[in-house]
Amino acid sequence: MRLSRAVSSPVGLLTLIVSGRGLARVCFAGELVDHDAGSGRKNPGLSGPGGEERMDPAATAVLDDTERQLKEYFAQQRRSFDIPLDWSADTGSALTCPRSAQQRNGHTPNDFTMQVLHGLLQIGYGQRWSYGKLATELGHPGAARAVGSACGRNPIPIIVPCHRVVHADGSMGGYRGGGTVKRFLLELEAVQEQANGRR
């Protein structure tokens, strides 16, 4: 069972897709692809004011926790997330974010991509690492480009902070949510870090 919910945020509407195992996707506005559009079939679990049609207590709890923690993050009241993640890549959802061919075929991300995604979780709030630094930290010096590609396949942006990875010269680099969103997230965290430094 999977559920989704659209939540408003300072970076636009975010759609959260969860399973009973955890948060599986965070999609930015305009990213969702309705695979059932025009089929006349109702999208299961995607109706009602919160987006939930059929209730799964575990999935609903993950939705509630994710929405609450995102609100705290954007209000600069949270620096890390405590949410179970479902890396299975196939939520069974009629509405999905754009995915790689590997993910569209129902396979989980490959080992290297998973290593990068887990590595992203080690980058602290307000920090900026280069793609090269992350590659080196993961034991793959010289693999900056491959790390960048893996970051682009991150199904759970913001929570898994690929926005904290930039080019070695400090320029933003790519981001699924767009450069404006990436800059906003980095500046949001930088402002909070500066405020903490003045205390």
Descriptive notes:
With 199 residues, the protein is an alpha+beta fold. The protein has two domains: 103 residues, Methylated DNA-protein cysteine methyltransferase domain (Double Stranded RNA Binding Domain, 2-Layer Sandwich), CATH 3.30.160.70; 91 residues, Arc Repressor Mutant, subunit A. It is 34% helix and 14% strand. The protein is built from six helices and seven strands, in the order ββββαβααβααβα. The strands form three sheets. A three-stranded antiparallel sheet has the order 1-2-3, with helices on one face. A two-stranded antiparallel ribbon has the order 4-5. The protein has a two-stranded parallel ribbon with strand order 6-7. Strand 2 and strand 3 form a beta hairpin. Helix 3 packs across helix 5. The longest helix is centred in the C-terminal third of the chain and has 19 residues. About 14% of the residues have low confidence.
Order of strands in the sheet with the most strands?
1-2-3
- Kindly state the mean pLDDT as a whole number? 82
Q: Low-confidence parts, pLDDT < 50 over ≥5 residues?
A: 35-49, 91-95, 100-107
> How many helices?
6
Write the CATH homologous superfamily of the largest domain.
Methylated DNA-protein cysteine methyltransferase domain
Sheet with the most strands, sense and barrel status: 3 strands, antiparallel
Shape: globular
CATH architecture level-2 label of the largest domain: 2-Layer Sandwich
Radius of gyration over alpha carbons? 17 Å
Count of the separate structural domains: 2
Oligomeric composition of the shown chains: single chain
Q: Helix proportion of residues, in percent?
A: 25-40%
Strand element count: 7
Order of helices and strands: EEEEHEHHEHHEH
Q: Class of the largest domain in CATH?
A: Alpha Beta
